[in-house]
Design a protein that fits this description.
Length: about 45
C-alpha cells in the first residue's frame, strides 16, 4: 500500500497503485521539462 501526505497536515491518505503510477508519471514529466530548460538534454536528430 502507498500513502501520500498533502500539505502540512499530519495525516496520510492511502492511494491505489494506479494513482501512485499517475503521480510518479507527472513528477517524471516535470523533471524532464526542467532538464530541457536547464539545457541538460541534447536534441537528437531523427535522420
Amino acid at each position: 500500500k502507498h500513502r501520500i501526505k498533502l500539505g502540512d497536515s499530519s495525516s496520510y491518505y492511502y492511494i491505489s497503485p494506479f494513482c501512485r503510477y499517475r503521480i510518479t508519471s507527472v513528477c517524471n514529466f516535470f523533471t524532464y521539462i526542467r532538464y530541457i530548460q536547464q539545457g541538460l538534454l541534447k536534441q537528437q536528430d531523427g535522420e
